[in-house]
């Protein structure tokens, strides 16, 4: 059987490995648009901050892929699918035949369409080339504006500040990481990053990037002008679904799949950020890797089904422990809050019907696994509710 995996990000690379392990006789090809060997995209912030090298990020060295018999085709963007013929067509016009196809094309970072958005000096934050562009700009110090105060924007800001740039984060909401943090944890984080020299303009919206030949300043809706030699746009992602859509596969925001990660075409699967399961697309690596395993099992003819779990995310900035999981802003939940101003520790737990449904941890995230387990298993916490916020050591005593 010939299996072609398109996209050599975390999901595609994992799926190719699992396919090769499960189906030793199969011919597995992994074709990716990027020139690099498969790498850990999540760790790009470490590369930017100088805490890791490019070699550290490589997850699948060539000898490993070769020993599994995987044909790795880097720098091979696929331009079209010919599903009737069972072929993918590369941008150079080469036809790659398949019996089973896995789409693992991930997402593209969004470039907001305001004036000046495509000037030189404006970069997105998605791949190794983006980090290289930021590192080149940071070499001469200077000023950077990061548009977007979500997880990626903050990691970019800290990395650039660490590299000697003066950084301002422009964020549309009143506190950073509003999808993961409540306002109280967001305020603590703003204060902490402020001690590292990072400034915030929030809530604020960008109207234009000024400059003739390259970016010189960011203009905000209230008229504020922030000079900048580097502008990083970290405002969200859009799933890469053109191949699927143009070949007639059903898509919503991403490519529609069933529990086995199969599209409407039984020979074609979609996994990771380009897949939409039960109306939801997920922008996190853990579910993308799980989906890769499920698709590999399904292609190998085994029973396999993916079920979503609570989303969890942590900010990967040294010296700042921030983690959240599950629902963080439900209207119908009760909450338990523990706050220690002096120690800069904050913990908010959200409960519904005697069960934990969400958690925000700031300053001390050692108990993250305990809370994620409670959210995932939906165990009742009624018996130890009073000790819940203190963590597992105290819960055991009270239980
Ligand atoms: C800086 C940064 C930090 C992050 N931190 C976290 C984190 O802390 N926790 C977390 O859970 N997630 C994090 N993420 C998100 C995480 O990286 C993604 O969820 C994960 O990479 C998704 O994997 P994927 O394989 O589905 O897609 P991708 O990683 O996007 O890989 C898709 C690959 O397919 C290639 N491709 C696209 N179209 C084609 C084509 N037509 N032909 C050939 N190849 C193609 C792309 O070039 C890309 O290499 C972070 C992302 C970034 C950028």
TrEMBL record:
<feature type="domain" description="NADH-rubredoxin oxidoreductase C-terminal">
    <location>
        <begin position="314"/>
        <end position="377"/>
    </location>
</feature>
<dbReference type="Pfam" id="PF07992">
    <property type="entry name" value="Pyr_redox_2"/>
</dbReference>
<dbReference type="InterPro" id="IPR050260">
    <property type="entry name" value="FAD-bd_OxRdtase"/>
</dbReference>
<dbReference type="Pfam" id="PF18267">
    <property type="entry name" value="Rubredoxin_C"/>
</dbReference>
<dbReference type="InterPro" id="IPR023753">
    <property type="entry name" value="FAD/NAD-binding_dom"/>
</dbReference>
<comment type="similarity">
    <text>Belongs to the FAD-dependent oxidoreductase family.</text>
</comment>
<dbReference type="GO" id="GO:0016491">
    <property type="term" value="F:oxidoreductase activity"/>
</dbReference>
<protein>
    <submittedName>
        <fullName>Nitrite reductase (NADH) large subunit</fullName>
    </submittedName>
</protein>
<dbReference type="InterPro" id="IPR036188">
    <property type="entry name" value="FAD/NAD-bd_sf"/>
</dbReference>
<keyword id="KW-0285">Flavoprotein</keyword>
<feature type="domain" description="FAD/NAD(P)-binding">
    <location>
        <begin position="1"/>
        <end position="292"/>
    </location>
</feature>
<keyword id="KW-0274">FAD</keyword>
<dbReference type="InterPro" id="IPR016156">
    <property type="entry name" value="FAD/NAD-linked_Rdtase_dimer_sf"/>
</dbReference>
<dbReference type="InterPro" id="IPR041575">
    <property type="entry name" value="Rubredoxin_C"/>
</dbReference>
